[in-house]
Structures are given as structure tokens and as C-alpha cells.
Amino acid sequence: MKNLFKSMEKLTPRELRYVNNRASVDVVIFHKQDKQAVLIIEVDGFAFHENNPSQLEKDAMKDEILRKYEFCFLRLPTNGSGEEGKIGNRLDFESSTNLKDR
Question: Structure pTM?
Fold first, then answer.
């Protein structure tokens, strides 16, 4: 995750430890011209995420970090459907707005 940020000054000490401890995201779609992250996708395995309070806490922290830096992100459960449409809708929305400085 830390490669996504120009600065980590918005992070709390706990969030900074989390990011520096090899926290990662599943998929990042970058804008071809300026290399800005356009969409971050997290894929949540139902059994691993739903039955694991520790993982749910980490997911919530990751979501909060991504919100702080105004990244567009999408969580997709492995037992869901319509993922292609959800991703397409998010990309359409993001292409119609300006990318923010992170």
C-alpha cells in the first residue's frame, strides 16, 4: 500500500505501522498517462473474511486509510455476482471526475 501514497502524514501511528508492515491491496488500476491509481479493488473471500474478526478489523482500517486519501475503491466478495458491471460503473464514474492529488 505504501507505494500508493506521496505522503503518509494523514495516517495515525497505528495506520502507519499497518501500512509499513507490508499491507497490500488486491488490484490497482492505474491511469495510463499519469500513473495515478484510478480504482483499487479488494476481493474478500467469504470464509476467510466473514469468520475472522481480526481480518474484518484490518479491512476496516484499510478502508479508512483509502478514504482519507480519497482513493476510489471497491470491495467484492467472492460469493457475489455482477462484478464486471460494478467495476465498469466505478471506472465510468472515475473517468468523469478529476483525479485528486494524493
Answer: 0.80
Distance, CA of 98 to CA of 88 (rounded, Å): 17
CA distances from 41 to 12, 13, 14, 62 (A): 23, 25, 23, 12
> How far is Cα 1 from Cα 6, in angstroms, rounded to an integer?
11
Q: What cell does 41 get? A: 479493488
| pLDDT one digit per residue (tens) for the chain, 102 residues | 989 999 999 999 999 999 999 999 999 999 888 888 999 999 988 766 567 888 889 999 999 999 999 999 999 988 877 788 888 888 877 766 655 444
Beta-carbon contacts of residue 2 (< 8 Å; ≥ 6 apart): 8, 19, 20, 23
Return the domain boundaries, the chain: 19-94
